């Protein structure tokens, strides 16, 4: 503002300028008049200086700000340009302030699940914001700024936690555990690397770190900016705060959802995870100590399966939705029903039911732990506690009873600590399977290759010792993009045949940019492929000495099932020996490879004991399995 314009503004506000000396000029015809009685001019000036400054209108310029003289030679055009620049800066300042307010408000009221995002989620008054604003109004100086910085940091961390919750809810159908889930970040990196390549995974990490840092900076600066605004217009801020508080109290009283305290509940839930984890560790130790089969001699275990090769195969992401959701059930059901007929022509029969998995969307190892140990392993802490225990697993029972136990892990591309716990006699990881073909996104090799290599190495030798094998199949793992084609078993070889384009049924170039419909279609096709691989394996290599148990490890991610889907997975037992099926008749499972909607549902941790009792020396007896958690 130029000197001339500043003087004009003062003249407009205060009236015409008057002489500084209050003594009146003498009249030409008489003595000077005395000044009026009353307080002296000096006292008036002191009072004026000590009075509080009037609150400025929002956005108004302070008329008492120091006058900055214009540079020499300034022209009228320069004055116009300067005024335009000031207007631009004023608008930019207001836009920044509004953006800061929206960011703070959004972080406070936003839900921590993607399915809850919507306009209604933001029609809230967060009580945490009211409390913080009141505190900042009371404080002064350095204390106010320090608390504002702390509030900004807390707000940034809250945003990060909500984003982590959103990611976990979308992938594993549960919130992020601030105590136990950090180890999963390494698995997430491996998944991204195997899906889009190392460069893409590194780029994703760099972008993620930069985004978190930028978010913290933005929240801190936003809170500081709003704090300065509140301090400058404290009387208006008090009135606005009082009005919002009255609305919040009224909403809470009559039950209107405008009164929001979701952030406090969320923080309380995550803080409570620490104590819950400590209590759960003790509860799990007590559960693991109770084992009815801990001291059972080997000659009393699994007597009804003597001489059989028993394969326990997990089908990745094979959940109840695959056989009952109208979008998948017709095609997947056709594969299962057709397989039931083809196997029956070769003398094989099957029974199917459901198990409730401890996990959903991912965390396959938790399902493996639960099925094989007979313990409910639904978090990483329980998993690590199990590995430190000497629990008798299902494969451990087979080993004690005289079987050769084999682990076939096509997804194990790094050292696998669980190998020593499960105690396999022989172990084949991704490197040991000697695959020479291309990867299929996350899957290092096709399921048919895994089964063909297992057959060649473990079952092809006549007169081999009975084998119990655990085989987690991986072709139906997300992102459900590249899907192999079923080949003649004699042509699988070392896998190099999969380099031919004709060996790939589906191979979209853009894994990231697919629509939700394309993702679900890819999921269905991958499940069909994995099931066809198992059915064809039994058709090709099955005999009277084979017992196959195959099941899903968990339901797929919510992008496939939708939110709030159950955790049931199908389980099927296939055998050529009628005596084996006679043993499981008491289970009440449905005939065939596809369980119906009313098929029995057990908790997955009950399977080990039920299986050992059923195929032990005595016929199955005892109470029914406990109800499945919902």
Automatic annotation (TrEMBL):
The UniProt keywords, alphabetically, are: Membrane, Transmembrane, Transmembrane helix
Mind telling me which residue stretches traverse the membrane in this protein?
91-109, 121-139, 146-164, 199-220, 240-259
Keyword check for Transcription = no
Bias (Basic residues): 1-10
Keyword Nucleus applies: no
The residue ranges flagged as biased composition, category Low complexity, are 39-53
Q: Where is this region: Disordered?
A: 1-80
Q: What is this protein called?
A: Phosphoglycerol transferase MdoB
Q: From what organism does this protein derive?
A: Micromonospora purpureochromogenes
């Amino acid at each position: 503002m130029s000197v001339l314009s500043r003087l004009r503004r003062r003249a407009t506000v205060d009236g015409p300028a008057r002489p500084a000396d209050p003594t009146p000029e003498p009249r030409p015809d008489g003595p000077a008049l005395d000044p009026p009685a009353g307080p002296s001019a000096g006292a008036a000036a002191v009072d004026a200086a000590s009075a509080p400054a009037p609150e400025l209108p929002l956005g108004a310029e302070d008329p008492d700000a120091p006058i900055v003289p214009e540079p020499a030679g300034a022209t009228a055009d320069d004055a116009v340009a300067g005024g335009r620049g000031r207007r631009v800066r004023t608008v930019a300042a207001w836009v920044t302030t509004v953006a800061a307010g929206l960011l703070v408000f959004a972080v406070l009221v936003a839900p921590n699940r993607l399915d809850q995002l919507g306009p209604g989620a933001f029609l809230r008054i967060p009580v945490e914001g009211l409390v913080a604003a009141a505190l900042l109004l009371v404080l002064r100086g350095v204390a106010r700024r320090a608390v504002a910085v702390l509030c900004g940091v807390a707000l940034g961390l809250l945003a990060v936690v909500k984003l982590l919750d959103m990611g976990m809810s979308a992938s594993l159908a549960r919130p992020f555990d601030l105590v136990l889930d950090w180890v999963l970040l390494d698995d997430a990196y491996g998944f991204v690397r195997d899906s889009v390549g190392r460069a893409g995974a590194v780029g994703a990490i760099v972008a993620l770190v930069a985004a978190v840092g930028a978010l913290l900076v933005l929240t801190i600066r936003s809170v500081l900016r709003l704090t300065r605004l509140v301090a400058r217009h404290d009387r208006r801020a008090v009135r606005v705060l009082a009005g919002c508080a009255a609305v919040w109290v009224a909403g809470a009283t009559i039950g209107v959802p405008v009164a929001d305290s979701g952030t406090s509940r969320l923080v309380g839930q995550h803080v409570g995870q620490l104590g819950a984890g400590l209590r759960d560790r003790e509860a799990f130790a007590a559960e693991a100590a109770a084992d009815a089969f801990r001291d059972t001699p080997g000659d009393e275990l699994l007597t009804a399966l003597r001489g059989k090769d028993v394969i326990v195969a997990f089908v990745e992401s094979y959940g109840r939705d695959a056989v009952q959701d109208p979008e998948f059930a017709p095609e997947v059901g056709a594969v299962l029903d057709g397989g039931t007929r083809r196997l029956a022509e070769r003398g094989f029969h099957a029974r199917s039911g459901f198990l409730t998995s401890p996990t959903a969307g991912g965390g396959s190892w938790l399902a493996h732990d639960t099925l094989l140990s007979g313990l409910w392993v639904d978090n990483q802490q329980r998993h690590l506690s199990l590995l430190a225990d000497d629990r008798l697993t299902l494969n451990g029972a087979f080993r004690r009873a005289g079987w050769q136990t084999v682990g076939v892990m096509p997804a194990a591309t790094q050292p696998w600590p669980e190998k020593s716990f499960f105690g396999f006699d022989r172990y084949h990881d991704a490197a040991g399977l000697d695959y020479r073909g291309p990867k299929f996104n996350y899957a290092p090799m096709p399921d048919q290759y895994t089964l063909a290599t297992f057959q060649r190495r473990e079952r092809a030798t006549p007169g081999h010792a009975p084998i119990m094998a655990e085989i987690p199949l991986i072709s139906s793992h997300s992102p459900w993009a590249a899907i192999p084609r079923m080949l003649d078993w004699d042509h699988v070889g070392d896998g190099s045949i999969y380099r031919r384009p004709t060996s790939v049924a589906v191979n979209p170039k853009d894994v990231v940019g697919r629509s939700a419909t394309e993702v679900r279609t890819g999921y269905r096709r991958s499940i069909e492929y994995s099931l066809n691989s198992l059915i064809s394996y039994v058709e090709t290599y099955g005999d009277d000495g084979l017992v196959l148990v195959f099941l899903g490890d968990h339901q797929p991610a919510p992008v496939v099932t939708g939110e709030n889907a159950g955790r049931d997975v199908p389980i099927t037992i296939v055998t050529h020996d009628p005596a084996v099926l006679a043993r499981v008749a008491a289970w009440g499972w449905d005939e065939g490879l596809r369980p119906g909607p009313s098929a029995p549902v057990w908790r997955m941790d009950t399977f080990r004991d039920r299986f050992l009792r059923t195929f032990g020396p005595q016929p199955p007896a005892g109470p029914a399995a406990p109800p499945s958690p919902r």
